[in-house]
Amino acid sequence: VVATVCGKEAENRLAILLQSFGFRYGIPVESDLVMDVRFLQNPHFVPELQPLSGQDKGVSRFVLDQPVTRQFMTHFSQLLDFLIPHYRREGKNYLTISVGCTGGRHRSVAIVEELSTLLPGDGVVIKTAHRDLDRGIA
Question: What's the rounded Cα separation, in Å, for the pair 6 and 116?
């Protein structure tokens, strides 16, 4: 399926890929912006959360309910709210924002999922991907 967008909307359209990744597997080369969230408390060390991912409610709550995470999300969202219009004004059609944690399974996944609900939608298409979500699972 190919969508055609004409006129002024086509000029200002921006596709944003929010992707999680694990630093142990390398930074995604296609990244325009990279954020390291390894400073957040790691659910990997909570036995009942370890086998889950950031897409599971328990892990997501564990990560997002931390006061430092709430502060981070406020600041990072404000930064993106500032940057995105400037990328659009410069004619950028694609923007890849990569968020990394150690293994790319818990913290970065929860942050990407939450960010996808916070970014502006006007003239912006947001997609999510989790590059390393299934790595290292037996």
Answer: 25
